[in-house]
Structure formats: structure tokens, C-alpha cells
Amino acid sequence: CETGTPDLDFAKRFAEGVQKVHPGKMLAYNCSPSFNWKKNLDDATIAKFQKEIASYGYKFQFITLAGFHALNYSMFNLAHGYARRQMSAFVELQEAEFAAADRGFTAVKHQREVGTGYFDAVTQTIQGGQSSTVALKGSTEEEQFHERPAVAA
User: Fold this and answer.
1) CB-based contacts of 63: which residues, under 8 Å, 6+ apart?
2) Which whole number is the average pLDDT over 63-84?
3) Do 90 and 123 lie in a common domain?
């Protein structure tokens, strides 16, 4: 279902109409980034919105373009900070990545994240273990990202 605004009453009526014709049919709802959520709903309704629509049968709930908005906003913030505070802005981002690792964030080790180790293993297999062009072995990532970097005195 896609509505013009985040509207629980409409979503409920729509779901009831579908369920009359197709009982038990699972529904999908686009929690659209095109909505101005705060203009249409109060904080309490926003907080319960997904649980409410789930109770109507909307089992697949998604946000189209969530990644687009997150990526562009985060890059804007980094560029804005970098223009004013240079490397300090990037280091703040890096520190936030280190802190997020405790919650499961893995991209701080970007070479590992994109599969460099796998391609190194393929290269080593093809070269009989004699390749000098592997990327991860001896890299700055391998050397520096095992644990939180020490702060220079």
C-alpha cells in the first residue's frame, strides 16, 4: 500500500477491504520518505506507526530511498565539517565507526568488508602461494585496525 500521507485510518480501511476478499493475505506498506512525517503525525503516533500497521496485516514495511537519504545526508555533514575542520571532521567519523563496531558495524575495516581477503586467497591459489600483489597482507588495515588505535602523546 502506498498512501499520500502516513494515515493509519486509511491503511486500516485498505487492509480490511483486502482481507474481506483475500483473508490472511500479507500486505506491504511503503513508509515513504516523501512524507513529511512530523507535519502529519505527532511523536507518539510515529513511534507506534509500524506496530499499528503490522496489526492490520502489513507484514512487509519498507522505506524506499532510506539509503539514498542516509548516504547523502552523512556525506553532506562530512563535507561540511571537512571544509571547516579538515581531518578533525573525518577522525570524528572514524571514531564513531570504531564505537559502532560494538553494535555490529563492520565497515570500519573497509578492505575486509569488500572481500579483499577472498580475492587475495584466489590470487594466492592461482600463483601457488607466491603472489606479491595481494592487498590485505601487510596493509595498513591489517596492521592498524585490530583494536582501537592508541593515541599519540
Assistant:
1) 30, 31, 32, 33
2) 97
3) yes
